[in-house]
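haha ok so turns out i had the wrong file open the whole time. this is the CORRECT one, sorry everyone. sequence first:
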Amino acid sequence: MEGLKRALRPGDVILIEGEHWVSDWIKVFSYHTWTHCVMWVGESPILPKGVNRDFVEKGGNVVESLMKDADGNKRGIVLTNLDKYQDCNLRICRPMGITRDRLRLAIRFVLDHIGCEYDELNLTEFVHFTFANDNDPTKPIGQLDDGKFTCSSLMAAAFDSVEFPIIHFYDQTQNVYVPYHPTQVQPKDFDLSLNFQIIKTPALLPHMQKLNTFRRLIGLVATR
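then structure:
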């Protein structure tokens, strides 16, 4: 992971293919591999005054919004360490065409929201709209106005705060491309976004070769 960390820049969004049962559930409803995302904020980031230290883990270098921790307890937005995802499939998405000042403000946004709650209603409504045909991607869902975020709505809201949209859809009635509301952005949208570059680094190769070898072994065992 050290080689990967050297390739990262503050503000990079890291997509994660989770292995938890919730991740499998998200894959079904999102029709995509990526089930979680975090923002790299660098080693030893400067934290806001008065930050709740209960949500700051030692050696933290990424900010993420979690529904529950490893013990099944409700969590929220935390500063944690990327190392815990060393056995997961990862992808680096880097914002393009954004000024340093705007990127700095987007990073500050996620740091300022450490300790906020996870937006469970967003997840529920996301499932509902998967089966509905009347969803307007420009309209908010969930409880963003109450300061609650999912992993992807946190990242999207951070960039939206500096007028840097993640993904657009084509509004046929107005004949124009319109940005998604941050609450309707999913982890996969960073992968699809024209405003983000997928970073291919040799640092990922040993990690992925090890992961793919393990998966091939599991596949062989499963076929026997």
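The radius of gyration is 18 Å.
again sry for the mixup
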